[in-house]
Structures are given as C-alpha cells and as structure tokens.
Amino acid sequence: MNYPTLNIFSFYNLVLAKIETNIPDPFIQGNDLSRTSYHNDLIIAAKEALVNCLMHSYYDGMVGVKIVDRPSYFEFTNPGTMRVSKESFLRGQYSSIRNTEIASLFRRIGVSETAASGGPRILNTVLQNNLNDPEINIDYEINTTCIRIFKTFAIDNQEKLTEPEKFIMSFASRNPNFSINDIVKDPQNHFGKQTTIRKYVNSLVEKHLLSNEKIGKKYIYNLQKNNDYLNRVKHLKHLEDNLLK
C-alpha cells in the first residue's frame, strides 16, 4: 500500500539501486597488478539473478517475490519452480521462460540481453573472483525457486583458521601471486618474520587453501581454487560454443 504505482519495472529499479549500494568494493589486485573488477562483476551477477527472478515468477501463486540482502550473500526467491536444471541454467544451454511478454519487454529496454545469458554471467563472476559457489534451491512443496549469490570469497567457508592464517588468506585474496617475503614486508603484518610466516603459509598449503609453485630459487604462492564443479560447467559451455560455430 506504500507503493500505489509499483509495477515490475519500478520494483526492479528500486531493488537494483539497493543492491548496488550494498556491494562491498575492496581493493583487490589482479595478476597484472591492476585493480580487479569484483565490484562491477558482482553487480552484474546480482542484476542477472534479479531479472531472472522477475521473468520466471509465477505471479498467480500464493508466494510473492522476495529479495534478501545479507552481509555475505544476496538471495532471490520467486514463486514457480525452475524449468531447467542447475547445470543448464549456469551453462546457458537453453531457456524456458515462464513470462515471455515480460522477458521481451526487459530485452527491448536493454535490461536483459539474449535468452539464457544470465546463468553464464553469474558463473563467470564466481569463477573470476573465486567466490563461494552459487546455490540454487527448488522447493516443490511451496513452488518456489531460490538463487543465492555470495559476496564472499571461497576461503570464507573453510575450516577455522588462526589469526595469522586469516591475515595470510586475506593477503592472498588481494595478491594473486606472492612470496613469503611479500607477506613479511606488508605493512599490516605483525605476526612475525620469515620463519614464522613460512610456518603458517606451509600450514595453509597442507590444508589445500594455498597452492605453491617453485620459480627459480623461490616459491610463489596463490589461492587454491575451489570451484572444480563450476570450472567443469564452464569447460562444457566452452566446448558447446565451439561446436555450434
């Protein structure tokens, strides 16, 4: 009742504005020493999930559209079950739109592009930024689909770490390739020098949270990628795209 002129498009604009202001913008350095596109990538992924939610809602149902914003994730729930599998959605294999008129209007105003493009964009955001895997839950009892997109990095759900280990993992998320000496020289390091830091780094390697590679006379470390399933999905999509050319 507080929004007498509310429609699907105005709802989309209201929610998108809130989403954009609630995405963290940390300074994360890429392999080329430039700032990564984490903030923009996450906005794109959340926007795609929002559009998907509105295009595929069963508006005659008893459950409404629900968008939840938490510090670590966004959650998009719509009435109506997803008509394709999770893998097909992420690969953009094919589309089965519930509301074709709404989808057509979204495309005409430039909000949405080609059919089945939202899943691959979400997939790319997760893989490029090493985020926790998105969750897609379908509840057949109450007839809803829920997509959860995490703002947090995949390391955040790992086993409990000591404070020095948390610092090193945070350093690793900002610096894709680094040496022990790079951590020691970091202004925020107050956990020790070479020997102490090496002990914690080796512990993280044993826990499969960091990986290492010997280059010349020294080891270079980086985050252990944990998105094996999503990487396989992306690989399948790549093969499909090439076969269809």
What does this structure look like?
With 245 residues, this protein is an alpha+beta fold. 27% of the residues are buried. Helices cover 43% and strands 14% of the residues. The chain has a four-stranded antiparallel sheet, with helices on one face. Strands 5-6 form a two-stranded antiparallel ribbon. It starts with 7 loop residues before the first helix and ends with a helix.
Poorly predicted ranges: none
Structural class: alpha+beta
Radius of gyration: 21 Å
> Outline, from the CA principal axes?
elongated
Side-by-side strand order of the widest sheet: 1-2-4-3
Main pleated-sheet profile = 4 strands, antiparallel
How many angstroms separate the termini? 51 Å
Q: What's the rounded overall pLDDT mean?
A: 82
Secondary-structure element series = HHEEHHHEEHHHEEH
User: How many DSSP helices?
Assistant: 9
Number of strands: 6
State which percent range the strand residues make up. Answer: 5-15%
Assign a percent range to the helix content: 40-55%
Q: What labels describe this entry?
A:
245 residues; alpha+beta; 6 strands; 9 helices; two-stranded antiparallel ribbon; elongated; four-stranded antiparallel beta sheet; 14% strand
Summarize the structure.
The chain has 245 residues and is an alpha+beta fold.
